């Protein structure tokens, strides 16, 4: 899996559709609703949306007063090519994500994220008027938290183990796993601050890490979260491995619920969302 990738959510209104399984996104936005209201309380505005990649220009130059992005920027524009070089330390053999891999792999992901964010900031800087604002919500974690403590790590680990189990059973080829990498990245305030400063088009008005789940919601329910992951990842798994193995993959991962729950106990579940308000210079 290399080059540019597309990753649509599951459509329709079936059991595994985005429309039936987006409660976590709603809860995540609700956490920062008051912060969003505070940020936009002063600029009357018209709302507009257009199709296209947010890593390129979408609107006319200097036409936007307020830009809003919710849970989109965790998707990289492409899988870093270095991950597929089997002659280097950055070959991500047998692993599907940086949170369960070496520091060298994580650095490759971080470098791709930095490139993507610079492209994103430049495109938005062309579209947003001077003094205009941009509100970003994305997966994130507090400074100092290790990649292995990312609350998504137990799920990526379980998916990875399920795929390796299927290799042993001859259901998929080893090469298919070696060439598959999820193009997802979560950032921290410190990392994001450096990227904003380096780009130079925006000032940070507000930035903080918040919990995506209500405090009275109880412990994470792994089967429900796995359904949420299926909504977002089924398309990309299908594109690489084919549709015939998807049900088996998610069923095997569901059977690892106890292991996932145990790993979640040591993950950083209290801060899993980065809220950022930027002002165009």
UniProtKB/TrEMBL annotation:
Position of the signal peptide: none
InterPro entries per UniProt: MeTrfase_7 (IPR005299), SAM-dependent_MTases_sf (IPR029063)
Gene3D superfamilies given in the database record: Vaccinia Virus protein VP39
SUPFAM superfamilies noted in UniProt: S-adenosyl-L-methionine-dependent methyltransferases (SSF53335)
Molecular function terms from GO: methyltransferase activity
Family recorded in the similarity comment: Belongs to the methyltransferase superfamily. Type-7 methyltransferase family.
PANTHER family named in the record: S-ADENOSYL-L-METHIONINE:CARBOXYL METHYLTRANSFERASE FAMILY PROTEIN (PTHR31009)
Protein name per Swiss-Prot or TrEMBL: Uncharacterized protein
Species, as recorded: Camellia sinensis var. sinensis (China tea)
């Amino acid at each position: 899996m290399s080059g540019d990738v597309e990753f649509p959510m599951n459509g329709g209104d079936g059991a595994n559709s985005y429309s039936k399984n987006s409660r976590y996104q709603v809860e995540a936005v609700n956490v920062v609703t008051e912060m969003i209201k505070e940020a936009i309380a002063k600029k009357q505005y018209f709302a507009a949306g257009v199709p296209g990649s947010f890593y390129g220009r979408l609107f006319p130059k200097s036409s936007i007063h307020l830009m809003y992005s919710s849970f989109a920027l965790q998707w990289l524009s492409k899988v870093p090519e270095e991950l597929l070089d089997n002659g280097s330390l950055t070959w991500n053999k047998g692993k599907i994500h940086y949170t369960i891999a070496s520091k060298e792999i994580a650095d490759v992901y971080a470098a791709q994220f930095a490139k993507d964010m610079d492209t994103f900031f430049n495109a938005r800087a062309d579209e947003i008027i001077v003094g205009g604002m941009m509100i970003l919500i994305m997966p994130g974690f507090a400074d100092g938290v290790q990649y292995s403590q990312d609350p998504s790590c137990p799920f990526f680990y379980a998916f990875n183990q399920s795929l390796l189990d299927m290799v042993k059973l001859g259901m998929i080829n080893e090469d298919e796993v070696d060439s598959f990498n999820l193009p997802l990245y979560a950032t921290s305030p410190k990392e994001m601050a450096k990227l904003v400063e380096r780009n130079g088009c925006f000032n940070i008005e507000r930035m903080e890490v918040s919990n995506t789940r209500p405090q009275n919601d109880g412990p994470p329910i792994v089967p429900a979260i796995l359904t949420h992951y299926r909504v977002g990842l089924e398309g990309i798994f299908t594109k690489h491995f084919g549709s015939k193995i998807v049900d088996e993959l998610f069923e095997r991962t569901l059977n690892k619920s106890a292991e996932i729950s145990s790993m979640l106990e040591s993950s950083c579940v209290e801060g899993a969302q980065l809220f950022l308000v930027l002002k165009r210079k």
